[in-house]
Amino acid sequence: MTLEFRWAATAEQLPELAAELVRLNVDVIFANSSTEVEAARAATKIIPIVFANHADPVAVGHVSSLARPGGNITGLSVLLTEIVAKQVEIMKQALPQLKRLAVLAVVTAPSTRPGLNAVESAGHRLEIHTQPVLVRTADDLATAFETMARERVNAFLTLQTPLIRSQRATIGKLALKHRLGGIFGAKELVEAGGLLGYFADNTDLTRRAAVYIDKILKGAKPSDLPVEQASNYQLVINLKTAKALGLTIPPSLLARADRVIE
Predict the structure, then answer these.
(1) 167 and 152 inside one domain
(2) pLDDT band, residue 16 (cuts 50/70/90)
(3) 214 is in which domain, residue-wise?
């Protein structure tokens, strides 16, 4: 088996890289999240595409349904809309006085609109005002946090995308600089200084995606392989960051954590 890797520094580079893989006539394209899937989908309706950490493949139109994907795309989903609703609840438990929550999102990600809608709905139920703060590139992050500070939000939530994950060190530093607690969708961001994390086990999902690729290489059609959902979720709390921000995490929330960073 020959693996053809292509790496993009920005979402704008993805379409050409996807087109290049199509020109190489590869047997299957692994596109990890909705951002990469969108570029691959636009490049081919024939070559199978497998994802591992898709936010919501039905909502963004990449598959017809979870049970019957149709077309040439399938894989595993983290169901972002359900995760972010839970993240809002967790942040409210961590900060009972939470009234204003910023939502850091990448404008180019196909999952951004469904994710924002889910956060807004969850916030409405808990009487929390949610404010989208959109970025396009890493250069926009500093301005985004300045906006959060100016709007006097109590905390922030990130809609997980490849850009957010790759900029975890920068986001961690900016959060501490502006004294804002955040909740994230990947453990790496909590390890980099984030306050809270609630997420699916992305490593497990990626390993399971390899099974899909194996089946397709042996003749299975993507349209016949139902999209599977994440089954393992983790709550991580960074007490070191909580102390730096002067926050006290309720014991009831600490007791539920799968991992506590001290």
Answers:
(1) yes
(2) very high
(3) 11-77+201-231
